[in-house]
Amino acid sequence: MTHRCILITGAGSGIGAGIATELAAAGHHIVLTDLDRTAVDAVAAQILAAGGSAEAVALDVTSDDSVAAALAAISRPVDVLVNNAGLQHVAPLEEFPIQKWDFLIQVMLVGVARLTRALLPGMRERGFGRIVNIGSIHSLVASPFKSAYVAAKHGLLGFSKVIALETADTDITINTICPTYVKTPLVDKQIADQARTRGIPEEKVVSDVMLKPMPKGVFIGFDELAGITAFLISPPARNITGHTIDVDGGWTVQ
């Protein structure tokens, strides 16, 4: 496989850091971005110590100025964009602060559009680009108390389909990977939040809320998401665009 320059948002921890580490091990140059510069510096240091190639840049996906500054600071053109930055807030809509609701949409939907829009001209000029959105099982189904997250993740699918059509005249693709729960700090926080909101023990959140709908009944691994990303940026996937890749352990086939 040709080694690519891959920019990953929200790469300071969780899925972003996990994918970054796996793809760096495959020989790609990784541009780690996150609102928390200290966090991505630490991930970049780990990749470099393991013999990989990486650089870290602070990035606020809700800011045009931050996006412009980050892209100006990196060492080489971006071949692949992985839109991963995200956050969660669990509350009934009546108790959901509208500013928080708007912020989740700004990060996980508007931020995706902002960064994709900034990188597309360069991809067009070079005649190659791959965009991989990290969606969620909540791009496909809903859960109570997650109205902003579900709305943003559903929106990613429509956005991807439109951009697939707009880039069909060149070697650019865009797809959305939709995993069920991955054991990350974000999910750990959700476990506590859902236990409080639903009035049940945390172990019941894991067994009865998160894993019960999955016939396979297991958390998704970083290696799975990195492997799917690696395939989507490879030559055999050049005509896969605008699609949703479900990694749900059988959840949505029932």
Determine Rg (CA atoms, Å): 18 Å
Structural class: alpha/beta
Average pLDDT across residues? 95
Largest sheet: 7 strands, parallel
CATH-defined fold name of the largest domain = Rossmann fold
The number of distinct structural domains comes to 2
| The CATH fourth-level homologous superfamily of the largest domain | NAD(P)-binding Rossmann-like Domain
H/E series, N to C? EHEHEHEHEHEHHHE
Strand content: 5-15%
Distance between the terminal alpha carbons, to the nearest Å?
A: 36 Å
Query: Which CATH C-level class of the largest domain is it?
Result: Alpha Beta
Helix run count: 8
What this model shows, in words?
There is one protein chain. This protein is 46% helix and 15% strand. The protein has eight helices and seven strands, in the order E-H-E-H-E-H-E-H-E-H-E-H-H-H-E. Strand 5 (129-134), helix 5 and strand 6 form a beta-alpha-beta unit. Helix 4 runs parallel beside helix 5 and helix 6 (185-198) crosses helix 7 (202-210). The protein is globular, with a radius of gyration of 18 Å. This is 3-hydroxybutyrate dehydrogenase. Its EC number is 1.1.1.30.
